[in-house]
Predict the structure.
Amino acid sequence: MSRALIWFQHDLRLEDNPALQVALKRGQHPIPVYVHDPAETPIGAASAWWLHHSLDALRQRLRALGSDLFLLEGDSAVALQRAAQDTAAEALYWNRSYAPGMRERDQRLSRKFSQNGLHTESFNASLLRDPMQISKFDGSPYRVFTPFWKTLQKLGPARDPLAGCGRLPPPDVKPAAAQPLRSLRLLPACGWDSEFHQHWEPGETSAWRQLEAFLDNHLIDYAEERDLPALMGTSRLSPHLHFGEISAVQIWHRVNRWAQQDRSPGAVAAAEAFLREVAWREFAHHLLFHFPHTADSPLDSRYRAFPWRHDYANDLRAWQQGNTGIPIVDAGMRQLWASGWMHNRIRMLVASILSKNLLIPWQQGAAWFLDTLVDADLANNSFGWQWSAGCGADAAPFFRIFNPVTQAKRFDADGSYVRRWVPQLRKLPNKWIHQPWLAPAPELSNAGIYLDTNYPSPIVSLDSSRKRALAAWKRMKQQTRHGEEV
DNA sequence: TGCCTCTTAAT
DNA sequence: TTAAGAGGC
């Protein structure tokens, strides 16, 4: 029986896994490997926590089926070549990443392997459609969501979800460099992750439990409740999706089946509202694949001339630590730090405050998110930040500046989200919970709040910083107009 | 999935 | 005094 290396990356699942299935279909003996190569694919601290536990879960599933998962470290091409030699594998299969530089890396790898007489093959497992399969009539990539979404709805996923696997042949050989999980050093040293287990359970099994619970309890109300951060109205599947514990194809099929089976009015509309969000993820990956420079520079090139501030170090730190003095913003940043996740409505608000009211380059916010989110995903993150900063595809025009107090009153009317994450403000009446700086002194002292002692006053005036942002935007437009003339 | 300001018209 | 709509940023 010939052997095939199955190179796991962001596809940490056994069901609907094309690389694993092709080996089994061809009667090849699968040798599952994972290569930790932070130099090539950097990983934030919170996602590293997730990865550790997801690898553990995948390995346990593989062992339960009679196989194993071998953990390697270092340059992926080198590690895989050695593993192929050690195990006398004749083939290498993997599921593709569409992140910048990965296609070139995969081509180099394929060349090297075929020089040694080894067969290589890669598959799309993370997206509904390969990014090269979707384009406008003229062949160019989409830059606007709605036509992209219409095309995606018409085409649907590229395939039906693949089945899982039964008992696997035991690994009779193993790569010599295989390491124990803990030696990859993926867990934070300082105990920052102490609360993460209360909020999350990485792994394929719990990804499905999460999806089923969402379908049973929340999807029917998704359109109304997805914007209320105090509720669990969203699917919370993002980290499971990022690590490929569940695939977009699986979600697409399962949600459509739910819509067919659920008789209640609105089920079809609810399913479509949710799949539309899955399509935003698809759109973000489509954009980063076709415009790889947008990981750290604006898609709209006029924004290269945007007059960001330079002396923002203190404000950036206050934002990161949830000490801006604007409760809804601080609640979001503290939720992020404590749980590795933030509700999407609040992500938009904190991004707007950073890039517009504080005039801090969006890349600084993006970097913080990449380090602290368990669902940190280069495509979604770059897209989301550029959307918020007004410089991305289909972005909010720059002059659409959120007022976080107005937004908080609309989406956290009773203040329960703020009270959950900023307990200092717990006793403040609803009238002032979103703007404690306007509360009369007796109200503050009754609630035990001492501004600038146990809760800060706002680091910017919402009104004047809004005007400052609009002025900066106008300056950029003048500059670029001037630049075009020259 | 914007906010602000102004206008108009109903009270 | 307030609600609703329109237009500009």
